């Protein structure tokens, strides 16, 4: 994980919304998610850049289908104040979701609590 001024990279990669046609249509998106901000670069030759401060996040979501689960993929949805939600579908999104959630809650001063869901059944 790269660090710069207490900034830790949570996930970075490229998404291809149009599949193998993305390079031809200049629609690939390069993402860098850190504990401080979310950067995206898209368009022809990186003509559009967008940065969201993690403090502006209002909600986070994670979803994956059975096929995505088997292949290690998922969709991270980031709801930001006064903007349409950002969706990142790629490999490793479950771990990115967990680490981003912890960083987001830390900026709000909330301690993340994870419960053990294993249940022990006593026989009588």
From TrEMBL:
Q: What is this protein called?
A: 2314_t:CDS:1
Domain named YdbS-like PH is located at: 29-85
Which InterPro entries does the entry link to?
A: YdbS-like_PH (IPR005182)
Superkingdom assignment: Eukaryota
- Biological source species: Dentiscutata erythropus
A Pfam short name: bPH_2
Upper classification of the source organism reads: Eukaryota, Fungi, Fungi incertae sedis, Mucoromycota, Glomeromycotina
């Amino acid at each position: 994980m790269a660090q710069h001024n207490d900034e830790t990279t949570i996930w970075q990669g490229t998404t291809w919304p149009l599949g193998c046609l993305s390079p031809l249509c200049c629609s690939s998106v390069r993402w860098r998610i850190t504990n401080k901000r979310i950067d995206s670069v898209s368009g022809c030759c990186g003509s559009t850049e967008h940065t969201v401060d993690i403090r502006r996040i209002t909600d986070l979501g994670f979803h994956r289908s059975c096929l995505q689960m088997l292949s290690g993929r998922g969709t991270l949805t980031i709801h930001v104040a006064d903007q349409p939600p950002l969706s990142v579908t790629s490999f490793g999104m479950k771990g990115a979701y967990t680490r981003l959630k912890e960083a987001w809650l830390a900026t709000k001063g909330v301690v993340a609590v994870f419960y053990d869901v294993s249940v022990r059944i006593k026989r009588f």
